[in-house]
Amino acid sequence: MMPILYSFRRCPYAIRARYTLALLDCVVSLREVDLKSKPMALTSLGGRATVPQMLDEQGKRYPESLDIMFWALKQTDKKELIESLWPSSSVKQAKVSTWISYNDNRFKHWLDRYKYADRYPDGTEFDYRQRAEVFIKRLNKRLNQRKYLLGDDMSLADIAIFPFIRQFSNVNKDWFENSEYDSLKLWLDCFVSDEFFTEVIMKKLASWQNGQLDILFPFCQEGKFD
Ligand SMILES: N[C@@H](CCC(=O)N[C@@H](CS)C(=O)NCC(=O)O)C(=O)O
Question: How does pLDDT run across 10-19, given as a tens digit for each residue?
Answer without folding.
Answer: 999 999 999 9
